[in-house]
Amino acid sequence: MIGLYCFCFYFLVLLSYGTFGQGFPPYTTSKPRVRCQLLRTSIDQLLSHTSDSIRDNGLDSIHVNNLTKTIERLRSGTAEVHGSEGTLTDLSTMRLQGEPRFNTNSTVGFHVTIDKLRIVYNNYDQQFDGVRQVGKMTIKVRVNALYVEVKSFSKLKGCGDEVLSVYPKRFARLIFEYEDKSAISFSMMGSRDWPWIKPSDVHEVIFPLVNDVVNKSINSALKRYKFCEHRPSSICT
Question: Where is the signal peptide (predicted)?
Fold first, then answer.
């Protein structure tokens, strides 16, 4: 019985030391592998939630008959768009600004701001940096045709420098992937309207902001991520 009392006494002493003293360190995720796993889990949950939100709000696909309504919902939003494993486009912090403009010759038009733009089509691969807050680009759509005009405007000089200008041509890839590559291409141009673009040319536009390709790309990047406190080799694999 005395032994049992002694055991209980020492157990209470040990418990109080761990509770009020420094005997038991608090739970931390000090191991880089654990942190990487938590990071992966958080990103998976974020992607899943974002994907559900896009699908539930009808933003994963746009039909011409409800194009105006859908763009109105997109207008005040912020989209993070990344290409498939570095072969498409890195379009960061794309913010839709201003009122969308529509007329009989326009499928969709709005201004965006671009921090970084990588364009890959056919054998052409070019990275553009610094097309920032005052850079303007208008997105329009036509079947198997693409016009790109990206301009960076200077508020001080009141003029614009043409970053890229490509006239209608069939491209393999640019900025957004779409399900039927033989049927839909994207046209991007400045603030001008072009009469050869008609809504009847487009049946559906797909914005795969979050899909399996993006998930695979992010997971692949995480495996290569040097998250391990500047150690020479990654243990996140």
Answer: 1-23
